[in-house]
Structures are given as structure tokens and as C-alpha cells.
## 1
Amino acid sequence: MRNRLLIGTTLALMAGSLLPVLTNVAAQTPASPAYRAPRTPDGKPNLNGIWQTMNTANWNIEPHPAGPSPVRDLGAAGAVPAGLGVVEGGEIPYLPAARTKQQENYANRLKLDPEIKCYLPGVPRSTYQGMPFQIIQSTKHIMLIHEFAGAVRTIYMAEQTEAPADSWMGWSNGRWEGETLVVDTKGFNDRSWFDRAGNFHSDALHVVERFTPRSAETITYEVTIEDPKVFSRPWKMSMPLYKHVERNAQILEFRCVEFVEDLLYGHLRKQPAK
Amino acid sequence: MKPAWASKRAARRRLLGAVAAVVLAASVAAAQTPAPRTPAAQTPSVQTRTYRAPRTADGQPDLQGFWTNSTYTPLERPDGVTKPFYTPAEAEAAIKLAVQRESAQTEPGTTADVHYDFSQFGLDRSQSLYVRSLRTSLIVDPADGKIPPLTDQGKRRTAQRGEEQKKLGGRWDSAESNQLDDRCLIMAGPGPPMMDAGYNSNYHIVQSPGVVMILTEMIHDVRIIALDPSTRSGSPPASSTGDGRMLVDPKIRQWMGVSRGRWDGDTLVVETTNFNAKNPFRGSDENLKVIERFTRVSDDTIEYRFTIDDPTMWTRPWSAESAMKKTVGPIFEHACHEGNFGLYNTLVGARLEEKNAAEDALKKGAK
């Protein structure tokens, strides 16, 4: 009895300490907890469809004002749109040296941002990079197929294993928690970024994503980031995903390798004989 | 057509890009999937089938899982072979010869030597599961097992392509003048039509209502095949998963075209058009239409037939038959471009050789 009381008090205290966190997230992406998604034929919440974010997180996941284009010739077309940020609390809790590295990344972003080289975007950047992605849901596997660079994630719902090696898109195991698809991803390399502002991680990155349907055409997407080599504590992002409702919506090819060959290898081109 | 040594060298070059991923995947496959001892996939398609494919939760024939189309059977019938099927002994001998050719080593100390042992890392096909067949060619129509003759327009187009390639310069002059696989743009696996890729010919099929997805291991290329709603079983999905009746505008051209599927009984029929013709299949052009038929004929075999229809290139359509055998997953990320040191280093090497040659010429001139 006494033990039960103690546990009860502890839980209440924990809930109390979590409360500000929850309100903050809710303020950004109002959830509708009563919503129950349509079911797939095997009885799971149906997330099938083509989804896309509607924010400026790929420019900078932290709050940021509008700014000029990093490439002069692109003028206003390449300028940075302002964004309220998707990081809970506004600021990423970097370790001091890591914040310095992020600032260096930002200063050298045209040379260093893997997106510019058409490299696989990593996670969770692939979600909010700006292009659509399709969720293809089966009982054993849920596939996320991204238009950018044809990036692919396989989420193992059964037969779950540890990552066999490090990779750009990580190794994802998923589970259902009521209405929510929870995806646990590890096994990352240290080469992808979170955005164009140089926000980064190490190979110790651990990402937990929560996909919760909030209406027929929106999903609340929440991410917890953990990386003790780079951040002083775990931190969260949240944003809605919007479903494409056009009848002919489909993922098209964006095979960008072709578009960056001159940038990456142009200096190695054979020069005409003098 | 490329000589055999060229494609083999290309295969080795490709390896330099993504060697770690390749080695991992290949060794996993080799460890888990011993080569079958019995000939398979020699299913003449007009036979009475008693097998009924399992069903997905929404009632589609279930093609899901991990598959390989790795095979030693050539697309075209070899010269000098005049029959469609080998005897089992002849088939064994043909495979043995092919394995020998594939595993032959470059000579150390020569320019051909890339310090890479194709057999050492389990990258030759014979060390993993592969599709065995008594067929002498994948092509079943025309009956001679050969690609039919080009039309006059097809001949002109082929010549024009040769000129365009010449203008780009020698293979090592730039990234753009190099081969598509060396550039990590696309490989033979995803097609369509889907072909043996030399190694890593592995695929993952996932189905959801209205959609069949095929992930190719090579460069993680994905085919999302939207099904014609009228042939779907179960309730139709939300519209955004695509609509089989809708074709995209002919202005939209893609490397892998645009695919639409439907169920014809237990057979998945996929039609693909809207190719950009940058990755010609045996010389095909942008009017190419590929019709594929996937039929699960046993727990571990999908029969795969395809028809190539490009009236501007060939005097008649032609068809081939192959198979996919069930293999063991998972499929690991094949980040080809991200690790393409091979392309970078060969370009650096070519420029260095030119510099050295120019300096040598100067020295000779000075003497």
C-alpha cells in the first residue's frame, strides 16, 4: 500500500516535470487525441499516402529570420524564408564545442552541406527536406520512399535486428503504440546534417520518431534526438505532415547525382590541348 | 555492344564506389543462401498451374519478401547454339564456363590489374543464390533467341548516339563521358525490365492496398507501381497513393519511366512508358514500352516475363522470360554516389597520366 502510494507520487511528480514539455509541443502542433485513423486491412492505423511538410525547417530547424541567398546570382529566388523553428524550446542544447562546429559548418555550408552534393539526407532531415515522400505500409515492413535522391527507409516491424553497419539513413525498427507509429533508428554515420544551417550530429545519433494521425489528412510528427557526443541532453522537434490529396499525386524521380557532377568533378575534366 | 571484358571491368570499377556495403551484403547473402542444386525457373508458362499464391491482408496475390534475379543465363542465345533448351549436363557445363570467366583474375602488374579479386569477396554470382535454367537465352521470342533487327530509323538513331558519345570525349575525359554505372546514376537491376545486375541482384517487394513497391539493392532504386483501381481487391485506398488509370504527361520523362500495374488473375502486369532514353535498354529509345508479368509460381519462385516494344527501334516486339528466387534479407543501404571514390580517383589518375605524358614529351623535345 505504502509502496503503491510512493509509486503514485513519483509518477505524479514525473508527470509534473513532463508537463511543460508536452504543452510546448502541443502549442506547435495541436494534437487531436480523440482522432482514430482508418485502418489498414490488417487492422493498423493507415498511414499510406504521399506526405510533405510545410515549413522552413530544412533551412534551419532553429527559429530564424529571413536572410539573403547564399548564392548571389539566385537573388530573392534563393533567399532564406523566415521560420518559427521546429525545435522544442527554440534552441538545440549543443555542447559548447559542438555549437562552435555548427557555426563553422554554417560559414562553410556551400562546401559542406551534404544536400548540395546530392548525398542521402539522413534522418530526420529526409522528412522535412521539402520534397514529398510516400509511406507504403505492410505488416512486416513500412517503407518511406523520398523523392530527394530516391532516399529509402525500411522500417522493420517484425524480425528486428541491430544495425549491421553504419549508414546514411540509419537502421529503423518500428512498433505501434495505440494510434502512434514509433520508429527507433540507430546505426547512423556522422556525415548527414539536420538542415542547411549546419546543425549536425555524430555517429552516436539515436532518433525516435512518433507518427500520430491527427486527421484524415494530417499526421503529428514528433522526433526525439539523442547524441551525447554533440548534445548536453535529448531534445525534441515536432511538426505536422500534410497529405497530398491530388488524384494523380505521385513520387517523381529526382536523380540529382546527374545535377551535381559538374560541381563535384568538373575540375577534373580533361582540358582541351593547348 | 560492349565486349565482355569491358563490362567486367566496369563491374569492378563500380565496386570501388561502394565496396563496404557490397561486401557486407554479399557475404550475408553467401552465408545465408546456399546455391540450389536443382535447376529451377524452367517453367514453360503455358502449363496448368496448381499453385495458388498466398494472399495479402487486402486479398492481393502476395509477392512480398526478398528476391534475387541473379543468373548466368544470357539475354541473347550464344552464337553457335541452335536450340532453346540445354540438356541438364550442357547447362551445368555452360554455367561452369561462365563462372570461370567471371572469376578469372587480372594479371598483377599490368594496367588491367585493379588489385581486386572478384571471387574473394563473394561477388561472383556463383557464391550466392542464383536462378538456374535450362534455357539457352532469356529471350523466348523471336524463336532464335536474338534481339530482332533494327528498323532503318533505329539504325540512324544508333549511329547518332555513337556520334553524341564521341562528342563527349573518351571515357575518362570527364564524369559525364563515363558509364552510367560508374557514375552511380543507375545500374542494370531496377530496369524496367529488371535484369541481373552482375552482383547484388537483390530486391525487396512490399505491397499495400493499391501499390506494389520494388526496392532494388543497387543504388536503392525504388519502383512504386500504382495499381489500376478496377483490378484492386479490397477497398480502394486514399487517392494520393496514385491512380492506375492516370498517365502522366508525355513531357515528364524519367530514367525508370512511369509504371502502372494491374492484376490479371494472379499475375501482376506492369506497363511502363515515359522513359527519358538516357539509359537505353539494348538500344531502346524514348518510345519504349515495357510490359512485365510477375507470377508467383511457387513459394520460392516468381516467374518474370517481359516484352520490349519500341516500334521506332525494332522491326518487331521481343520478349524474354526469367525468374526471381526467394532469398534472405535484409537489404542494406547501397550509398553508391556518396562513396564514389572510384570515379573521382580514375579522373584524377587520367589527368595525372596526361600531365606525365606532356612532361615526357617536353623532355624529349628538349633533348
## 2
Amino acid sequence: MADTNLAERAISRRAVLQGGSLVGLSAFLAACGGSGSTAVPSTGGEATPAPSTGGEATPAPSAGGDITGPLNFANWPAYIDLNDDESASPTLDDFRAKYGIEVKYVEDVQTNEDFFATIAPALQAGLDTGWDLIVLTDYMAARLVRQGWVETIDPANVATAAANVRDELRGLEWDPDMTYHFPWQSGATGVGYNVASTGRDLTSIGDLFDDQFKGKVTLLSGYQDTFSLVSLLLRERGEITNLPPDLTVEDAQKIKDFLQPYVDSGHIKGFTGNEYLQDFGSGDTWVAIVWSGDLASSGGDDDRFVYPTEGSIIWTDNMLIPKGAQHKRAAEAMIDFVYDVDNAARLAAWIYYISPVKGVAEVIAAEDAELAANPLLFPPADVTAKQYAQPDLTDEEDIAFNDLVSLLEGA
Amino acid sequence: MGQLIHRYRGAIPWLLMLPGLAWLAVFFVVPNVQMFLFSLSEGTLLTGFVSPPDTWSFGNFPDAVTRYSGNFVNSIVYGGLATILCFLIGYPLAYAIAFRGGRYKSLLLFLVIAPFFTSFLIRTISWRIILGNDGPFLGIIRDVLGVVPDNFSVIGTPLAVVGGLTYQFLPFMVLPLYVSLEKVDRRLVEAAQDLYAGPWRQGGAIAGALLGGFLAIALQVGLGYSRLVGDDATPGLVALAALVGGTAGALVGASMVSQAFLRVTLPLSLPGVFAGSILTFIPAIGDYVNAQLLGSPKTQMIGNVIQGRFLEQNDYPTAAALAFLLMAAILLAIFVYARVLGTEELSGGR
């Protein structure tokens, strides 16, 4: 079963993205839904809470009370697998079937900062944010944990996840024992381009500033991705010595001064979040700073991602349960569910990001040799040697960086 | 009972106003006091706020003005241009509906407001598609006519932002204009014609040329296609625009404006002009959606800054200070405008 999922990865989600986000996925079961271990009867209709037929390693645990829904799950666009006609997600459908609860999966996170701003006032006031499970990048997840705005995850409810998380993702400084978070996916920040529009293959960060692409270039908003990546270009040119994790305010000023003329001349036409996918789709953007898996899963045939020769930025997006979540138990069930190796393999194979789950590489290698060699899922050694983490800043530095960002972005 | 009512007669208007006053108090006065206190505070959502009376950061105001002066200028220029364009498009439209609409008046008015049945955001995003790279606009001028290069785009230019604003707020201009034009007594126009208010060829040509020339320059400079001062000033282009605009204005003025219109219809429609331009200018100047979706980093308006400071940087003090400054600027503009047109015009000249 799982191999059909791997083989039938839908290539383009452009139609879905242009038509709007995945708000309120209909409860249709995928025709080929079901993972290797859970057989979901294809009823061709509504998501009946199917009996968990045989083979499931762990029956739904009962610690911490009943699993009640709906699970309000906020995630980034292009971050969930879809069935062939892109009307539903096999992973979410299987979860619904297994636990018999509704999942409200909303692609509401376009940038960390924007999403944080929508939940921060409620968290500050000690109120429920309306979300049970959210996905944020390391630095933002760490910020929420520091603020004490995250529920602790009951280890008894996430046994699979605790066993399967890859070793290099454990022991992070901001949450060493995975009390508050589990990784959703990891990925890289690099350069994306439409080869039909550019007329050539791009290889470097410097290609973003080629005169030929004037007015067709977008960068990611905020400093975590754009400033980090551009710092690698300036480092190559000898203008900055620090690596991205150690960038200083002086470095940020240099980066801002480097980018400003390109903004003023209109070479850089905007700063985006995930919506660069729509701009690639319409041809408004030819070259952009993008996240690694998006164009492969949701772009067109001519859209490419490249790890630039100067290096790239590596990050992890993490599942968190915001303080006051109404369906914490369901969120824990989801965390555990996506750490099942087969579920994780199906997800990674569709979204082209780096799975945090041990054994996914083996499952994919056994089923699809071509995919097992895909550098998006399994970055080769020469790429990982030049991958750097995002800046780790104090609150004061964060404010100073953001000031430069807002000057650059014009608002 | 009757005596009771008689005794408290003076209270009746207040009772009637009570719901409205309570609404204003809860949803206008209280939030504004709150916002004013924020505008004098320090800190961010994460570091915590220090508010009056512990601190009085009046410096937030001058800081905000100097730092975001460019965005204020964008707002005023784009909002102003959109208002002028709405007037230029809306006045002939309202005039035609009111005077020549006949039995189709209701239908025509309905067509003016019909776009409002669609969400504001959907309409703006539609413009992204229409003006976008694979949209019909570029499809014609780039692919069919070939007058612009391959990497040309309309999205991201001030033209797109002003165009979006004009489109969004046109009904706010047309409806008040229609109401005041509809009220114009036709007998007054006939009387004026009987009293030798004939064509206005010379005056119309001169006034039209002046207005047309001024508008052409305002559009060209306001939309950033040329500059009047500085190193990259292009006086030639400006002069050309003025010439084209002046000629067009003169033709329109000479052929379409009569003395009866100038002396009767136009003055009587001024309350509509006043109300329409206020209703257009205020939302246009504070808008951020059009600049966000149709603009570029260079075309961001003050609304974008307020949105960004509030929602991305969590810098409530600066955002609150900017919001107050915007409010003050709008009030000042209305005050000056009312002085020029006369406040009694607001109440229909009574």
C-alpha cells in the first residue's frame, strides 16, 4: 500500500494553491489511502471512524483521558501529503479513521513572525489560542518555550515519537528532553528558480542579483532566512567573516546595505512568506530565496531548487502544543501518529522535506530508489558540509535585526 | 404620567442617543485612551511594556515621523491620487446616471455597488491576477503588442497600488455624488439656459487645460514615472505630460462644459463632492491591503507600517503613535478641506 503512495506522488499542487489554502479539507478518503499497517476500507465517502484493523503496533493509549476532537492543527502550506486529485490528505484521513476525531488542518502559517503575532496576545493573556497543534521553526519555538507558552507533552502518549526521533535532533539547548516539542520536518533555505524563465541553471546565491532577472526576484521576509543566506554570499566575497549562527548587528547592517540598492532599483520586487509558490505559478517570480521542498512538491515542472555553492541554511520546524489548548490529547496523538515510520515515509515522500523519523530512509530506499537519492530528502555530504543554522540572537539583537529588516522591507 | 414626561422632556434626546453614545464610548473612546497610553509606552510584547505613569515616551511621535516619513508621503500621495481619479471617473458617471439614467437608474446604481457583494480581499487578489505576469493586461501589451520588455511588470508599481485604491473606493465617491446631483432641480438649469447661460467655450478650454495639465503632472510625478527635482529630474517628460493633459482637458472643457453646468449644477453638487472625497480619501489613506498585495517594498503606505509594527514586530508603542498621527493628519486634512468648501456644505447648504 505504502509503495503506491510513494509512486503516485502528485507533482503539482499549483491548482490547489491558486484556488486557496487547504482550509477545511473535505473528509474524503483517498482512493489509495491507508498506510502499510492500517487498512482503511475505502468507503468512497465520509470518513467513518474505521476499526483499527490488525497490524497496528500500539493500540490507542489511554493515558491522560480520552482523545477528543476536533484537532485544530495550524501548519505551513505545502507541508502535508495529498491524494491524486488533491482533495484530501491520506495522512490526515488515516488519523481521522484511527482515532475517530475530526482534524481541522489549516495552512495558516506563512511566516513565523506573522503567526506568532496572531497567537501572542492570547498567550500573553493566558487564553486559549484556538489551536491544539502548531508548527514553528526552531528559533520561534524556542521563544515560545522561553515564554512558558507551551504545554508539556506527556511522554506516555508519545512513545512512538520518543523512540523514533533521529538522534541528531535530540538534546537541543532550548528543550533537551523533548518536553515541549517534536520536530515536524527539517529543510533548507536556498535558491529556487524557474528554469524556463531564467534560461539557464542557477548555482549560487549571487545569481539572485543577476541583472537579467530584474523585477522578478523575491526574498523571504524576516532576517532568519534571507539575511543568513545573503551573509554566505558576502562571506564568500570577504565582507563578512561570521557564519550565519554568529551574525552580529554589524554584519546585519552590511547585509542590509548590500540589499538596499536592489530594493530601490526594483530588482527585488518583494519579500514573501510561503506565497512565493503562487508567484512562481503565475510567472511573476523567476528567482527567489525559498525553502527546499516546496517547489518540488507544489511547484511546476520547470521550478527548481538548488543548494547554492556558497552554502545553505538548515532549520527544523517543530510541533508545539500552545498553552491552554483544548484538545491536547488529540495533539499528542497526532505527534505520535506522524512518527510512525510508514506514515512518516509517506509524508516525506510527498512534501520533499527531511523527515525527523529514524528508519524513513530505509523504508524509502526499499520502495523507491530514485527518491532515496533525492537531495531534498537526503542532502548529500558535500551539501551538509556547507549547511549552517539560523542566527541565535539575544532579544536586543533581535530588535536591532528587525529594525534593519523593516527599513529594507519598507514597512 | 404626562407630567412626568413633561418634566423630563429634556432627557428624551439623550435617551435616544444612549445606544449610540454607549457604542462610541466602549468602541471608540476606551480603545483610543488605551492606544494613547500605548503610544507613550516603551517595550515590546515579549520584553513587556512600561506604560504611563511610569514613563512618558513622547519621543515615540517624532521618532515615528522621521523614520516613516516616506510611508506617510506614499499614503498621502496615493490616497490623494486615488481620490482625484475616483472624482474624475465618478463625477461623469454619477452625472450620467442622475440626468440621463431614465428608467435604468436603479440598475445602473446597482451595477456601481455590485462589486461590493464580493469580498474586498478577493477583489484585490483578482487585480493581482489581472495585472500579473500571465494575466490579460500584460498578455495584450507585452505578448500581442510587444511594447514592453519580457521582465516588465505592473504589479509592484505605484500605478498598481493607486489603481487598486481607485477601484476599491469608486462607489464611495459615486453614491454621494449621485445623491446630490439627483437633487438638483432641473428647472434651475432650464432657467439658467433661458437667461443666456450658453456654451462656455473659451473659459472651458482654459480651465480644462489648466486642470488637465495639473492632473497629468500630478499623476506622472505621483506615480513615480518622473521627478520634478533632484539629479534624475526629467522636465522634458513632465512638460510632455502637461501638454497632453492640457490638450485633453481643453477639449473636454470646451466641448462638454456649459455655463448652466458651471453656475447651477456644479455648485449644487458640491456637498456630494465634499462627502464623496472624504469618504474616499479617509479609507484610501489608511489602506494597507492594496499596497501589500499590489505593491512592492517601495510603495508601502503608513497602514502597512502600522500593521507591521503591531503584528510582526509586536512594537505596540510605535504602532499606536503612528495610528494617532494618521488620525491627526486625516482630521487636519478634513478641517482644512471643510474650511475651503465651507462646513455648511456638509448639511446640504442649510
